[in-house]
Amino acid sequence: QVQLVESGGGLVQAGGSLRLSCAASGRTLSTSGMGWFRQAPGKDREFVAAITWSAWSGDRINYADSVQGRFTASRDNAKNTVYLQMNSLKPEDTAVYYCAAKTRAMLPTLRAAYGYWGQGTQVTVSS
Predict the structure, then answer these.
(1) What pLDDT is stored for residue 54 in this prediction?
(2) What is the DSSP code string of the chain?
């Protein structure tokens, strides 16, 4: 089992910044990456960013087109924590943000690739 706890959400004005954190515990060695997804009211949960890793290729980071250039994903191995730095926020970024642990050999943009999910943290961007 892997436990994930997100933090850092809140209310911010358009153009502002927030940094989300996701602390992992448990059997983290069984994971091959961490992803961020978000879900706005009435919409499906969508991919935001992911960090994947392997012994032979190192870290790889993917972003959704909608956040490319504004969001930055990173991780601190010593703390078993991943981060999502969100800059130049827009009202359409408003959603509940979830981190997830990748446990399946699938594309990191797919929800099905992730076996463990955090509880989510609300991000609200006012115009």
Answers:
(1) 81
(2) -EEEEEE--EEEETT--EEEEEEEEESGGG-SEEEEEEE-TTS--EEEEEEEEETTTEEEEEE-TTTTTTEEEEEEGGGTEEEEEE-S--GGG-EEEEEEEE-SSS-TTSGGGEEEE---EEEEEE-
